[in-house]
Amino acid sequence: MSGPVKFAVPFDHHRSTPISAIASFTSAMQASGVDFLWLYDEFSWWFPGKLWSKENTPFAEIIDGHSTHDPFVHAAFALSANPTASVRLTTDAVRASPVELLRKMLTLAHGTEGDVICAIGAGEQRHAKPFGYKRSEGLKRLEDVFVLLNKLWDADEPVSYEGNFWNYQNAFIGTTRPAKRPEFWALGGGPKLLEIAAKYADGFEAATPQAIANVAKFAAQVTSLRQQVESHGRDPEAFGFGIWNICICHDDPDVIEQVLQNPIAKYYAAQFGRLNGADWAEEGIQPVMPKSWHYALHWLPFEQTDAELDAITSSVSTDMVRKSFNVGSPQEIAAINSQFIDAGARFVGHLDMTPLIVGPSDAEDSIRRALEVNKAVKAHAGTKAQSS
Length: 388
Description:
This protein is 42% helix and 15% strand. By secondary structure, it is of the alpha/beta class. The chain has a single domain, classed as TIM Barrel, CATH 3.20.20. An 8-stranded parallel β-barrel has the order 1-2-3-4-7-8-9-11, surrounded by 8 helices. β3, α3 and β4 form a beta-alpha-beta unit. α9 crosses α11. The chain is globular and about 60 Å long. The chain starts with 5 loop residues before the first strand and ends with a helix. 45% of the residues are buried.
């Protein structure tokens, strides 16, 4: 996809954060040149049991990590006060009903002059099994969701579709459409997901280094996926690519080392430093979890005891933690983003783990660092565009 590079910063989605605060945050980010408000669809969060404690993060005393807002409702609050803002959301096909997802997105798109984009994955076991869903159905449901989103958007009369799981008979939600069509991107990885993306999605995004370890792998995926898109009679230039840069970003190397040594960072590295545990072999690192481990398929945090959490975190080396994130100053993180931009990314989501561990005292400065990264990324993209 040609065009300008877009940058996103997330807003805290916990219910301990006043929902009204999202309005002023969105306004401030928009005024600072950030392109998207970024919201995730999570029933519960990443750090179970004793990990979420004041010994590991000051945030544990003020945030219940497993109490989260609905991202679509959250986005509506933001856009009602900022009717030109753009928003990116995530969800998964295991939990999402196609027609309900489309109607939510149409509602949000009617509420703003900006862009409304949702990235859809094949689901995570942590959001599936505990709530009665089947993660094993994820990819087939993902195909159904994308097919039906497109059919319902295009329909001027009732449509029928017999899918893998969803069967629609004379389904219709009307013809009143927003000025800008909401976009639906595929989120994740793997051959089948990429095939579905190439056939039906508006773009593809994934986390680095967790899902896509380096820029060379990303560049190869961009090339391959563009070819697949074209093979289905679609325009590869209209297909978007993006990254989630899950990073530890700080100007002070001592703070970075403090974060790397924290049990929260170590646990993250063990569970999803590489989504596919077998990929650690390429780094010369022995995985902590079984070699068949895949974060999306196997992680059930509330089934892990405190003793198991201790065993996991004590087995993680600093090298493993460092390779589980992009690590560095704002300038260094921006340089990493720029490499991915040169390889085809047009969306960069900035997710800095540093304030999560350092605590509320770092919250404001983490925004300053994010804006610095955004500025450098945009400068690089602009220079590249002028020279091409």
